[in-house]
Design brief:
Distance between the termini of chain A: 45 Å
Oligomer: heterodimer
Mean pLDDT of chain A: 85
CATH architecture of chain A: Beta Barrel
CATH topology of one domain in chain B: 2-enoyl-CoA Hydratase, Chain A, domain 1
Largest sheet of chain B: 6 strands, mixed
Low-confidence stretches of chain B: 280-366
Strand content of chain A: over 45%
Strand order of the largest sheet of chain B: 3-4-5-6-9-10
Number of strands of chain A: 13
Order of helices and strands of chain B: HHHHHEEHEEEHEHEEEHEEEH
Structural class of chain A: mainly beta
Largest interface: A-B, 57 and 56 residues
CATH class of chain A: Mainly Beta
Number of helices of chain B: 10
Largest sheet of chain A: 10 strands, antiparallel, barrel
Shape of chain B: globular
Shape of chain A: globular
Distance between the termini of chain B: 96 Å
Helix content of chain B: 25-40%
CATH topology of chain A: Lipocalin
Number of helices of chain A: 1
Strand content of chain B: 15-25%
Radius of gyration of chain A: 20 Å
Radius of gyration of chain B: 25 Å
């Protein structure tokens, strides 16, 4: 199954890359965004309970577009504090979340309805790392860090509608193959670094199910700058003897600077 | 397009309350399912089944029927607590509502520790700056350092102060009896003042798979010299059954050093790192938390004479022998009177083959 999925992905990438660039050559757009993220997760290595919480995040992205294709690279990081139904007045137990990600997306126009709306199909490569620092007692000796690392690849479909001075887009990415790193009993604890590292292995959709839905609205402020409002939902599930579920919703406000020919 | 921002905001607002939906609610378990979850957790993560010779599957067969018959959460707590006590591990506890289940098998054994004896012989006792330890003279040329615990910070400063104040002594007694442990960095801060070079004093192994013998390769724990002053004279480390956890790591570190003797009863046998597990309950008073022993370790003693030796203080049927190594110079010719009451009162604990070298104290020494 993994081989056929790889073949499909390679095919998608080839189709996306095959056509020569059409339309005007593009410069780039650099966006700095910040916002809040809501997180819910259950990592059964850490606890059978669900932990929920919120925190801030920042994201830097660079994108280059023509009428035919789009390439986007995003780097982001979030922190947050998560609590369970068991968390007491002393704020224990709780989890301190640190999450970082790099997304690379490439998509090519497949359908154009008029010249203001277009559908794109492509592939997404998402590298994500999450560390949950699990605090249970005040003394600190029991603090354990649990982790999930994934590099996932899969198809992406997007729709964009362009107005005179604005752009509205939505996209869905669904990984079908992932390299997963997940330590068995945690990545570290306060007393001892746990050897063995992340223990990488490949996972198909049988074991790793994920989805990434993003909507964004960009409004031109000046000729060289845009205001970007975006929302992103990420869901990840890793099936294991001790399964892991993760969901986040992020809303952000960003400033986009147009570079080069995109101005 | 003019409704674009409103659309994005609406999607975000609609979804705000739904994050948890994608993860699902906490499981609602009946009592037997709760028992199974606890049993499975320990089965997955506890690291010392093989070393302790515990047949965990058999314990399931014994306790599951009792859990099925439990008529209340309190009764279920009694069943699970009793099952966990079979591990004979002070780091395996169960908090079930107001009830707390903890292995206390060693509590009834003699502590061989009377602070009154210390007070009688160490008349110039001072507290170290951070109050983690106290020090004084057990004899004009024998210093005494009592380390109360290994929690907090400032242990390096404390031992430096003690060594500076005891600069006139020829030999040193370090007392970790009744020491409940703390953080590993603190034991290393103290022990580093007694080594002249880097020394491997223990190995840790981590439970890293579902089988009981899935353990990571041994990871060396290295002690390096530190501090402005190092004591290289004879040292006796006093232990008892209530030297626990990090205090046992300290004993491991000190026994790797030349000129150090371990004197006293076997330590508790709880040197692994604990980890706490939350537990889904199903009603008021239900089981809330179960700390299980860290998927971590068992320190392994450094190789001695080319032969790997497990620390003798690990596990209920092993114990740390008293003075089984070379006779501690400095105490053979003139024994510290502080040691004698300890050793005279010590009786071989069950299964212990130690306490053989009690010739430290000349006959008739008070």
């Amino acid at each position: 199954m993994a081989r056929s999925l790889i073949a499909v992905l390679v095919g998608l990438l080839c189709i996306a890359a095959r056509a020569p660039a059409q339309g005007k050559p593009s410069g780039g757009r650099l966006t700095l965004a910040a916002g809040a993220v809501l997180v819910a997760e259950r990592d059964e290595h850490a606890s059978p309970l669900r932990y929920d919480g919120a925190g801030p995040f920042v994201r830097v992205s660079f994108e280059t577009r023509t009428e035919q294709r789009a390439l986007v690279v995003r780097l982001g990081g979030a922190i947050g504090t998560l609590r369970s139904a068991m968390t007491g007045a002393d704020d224990l137990p709780r989890q301190e979340l640190t999450r970082g990600w790099i997304d690379v997306e490439y998509a090519r126009r497949i359908v154009a309805r008029g010249h203001r709306t277009r559908w794109l199909l492509g592939a997404s490569l998402a590298e994500r790392g999450t560390v949950l620092r699990h605090l249970t007692v005040p003394a600190g000796a029991n603090i354990v860090g649990y982790a999930l690392y994934s590099t996932a690849i899969g198809p992406l479909v997007a729709i964009e509608a362009t107005g005179r001075r604005s752009r509205l887009g939505a996209q869905l990415a669904v990984p079908v193959l992932a390299l997963i790193g997940r330590p068995y009993g945690g990545l570290y604890n306060e007393l001892t670094l746990i050897p063995g590292g992340l223990r990488f292995h490949l996972a198909t959709v049988d074991a790793f199910q994920a989805g990434d839905v993003t909507t964004a609205y960009a409004m031109e402020l000046t000729r060289g700058a845009e205001l970007l409002l975006s929302y992103q939902l990420v869901v990840e599930r890793y099936r294991d003897d001790a399964p892991l579920s993760f969901a986040s919703q992020a809303a952000s406000l960003g400033l986009t600077i147009r570079l080069g020919a995109d101005r | 397009m003019k409704h674009g921002p409103a659309g994005v905001a609406a999607v975000a607002l609609l979804a705000v309350g739904c994050t948890g939906v994608f993860v699902g609610p906490d499981p609602k378990l009946d009592r037997l399912a709760l028992f199974e979850q606890v049993w499975t957790d320990v089965d997955r993560y506890y690291s010392l089944f093989s070393m302790k010779g515990v047949a965990w599957d058999s314990l399931h067969d014994v306790y599951a029927p009792r859990a099925a018959q439990a008529a209340s959460d309190s009764e279920l707590g009694d069943v699970i607590g009793a099952m966990l006590l079979e591990l004979h591990d002070i780091h395996v506890n169960l908090a079930a509502g107001p009830q707390f289940y903890r292995y206390s098998g060693y509590d009834a054994r003699p502590a061989f520790f009377d602070p009154g004896v210390v007070a009688r012989y160490v008349t110039d006792r001072h507290a170290a700056p951070n109050a983690h330890s106290a020090f004084g003279h057990a004899a004009p040329d024998i210093g005494y350092v009592w380390i109360l615990h290994f929690e907090g910070s400032g242990f390096g400063a404390d031992i430096d102060t003690a060594l500076a104040q005891l600069a006139d002594v020829r030999a040193l007694i370090i007392d970790v009896r009744d020491n409940p442990g703390g953080q590993r960095s603190n034991l290393e801060a103290v022990a580093s003042r007694f080594t002249d070079r880097g020394r491997t004093y223990a190995f840790t192994r981590v439970r890293d798979g579902p089988r009981h013998d899935d353990l990571s390769p041994p990871e060396p724990q290295v002690l390096s010299p530190d501090g402005p002053r190092r004591f290289t004279g004879p040292v006796a480390v006093l232990t008892n059954r209530k030297s626990v956890s990090t205090a046992e790591g300290f004993v491991l570190a000190m026994r790797a050093l030349p000129g150090v003797s371990i004197v006293g009863d076997s330590t508790e046998g709880g040197a692994g790192n604990p980890v706490t597990r939350g537990r889904a309950g199903h009603g008021p008073g239900s089981i809330e938390a179960i700390p299980v022993r860290k998927p971590n370790p068992g320190p392994k003693a450094p190789r001695v004479g080319g032969r790997a030796k497990w620390p003798s203080h690990f596990g209920r049927d092993r114990c740390l022998c008293v003075c089984t190594g070379p006779r501690p110079e400095g105490f053979t010719q003139r024994c510290s009177p502080l040691l004698c009451p300890v050793i005279r009162r010590a009786a071989p604990p069950i299964g212990c083959t130690g306490l053989t070298n009690v010739s430290l104290c000349p006959p008739g020494t008070p």
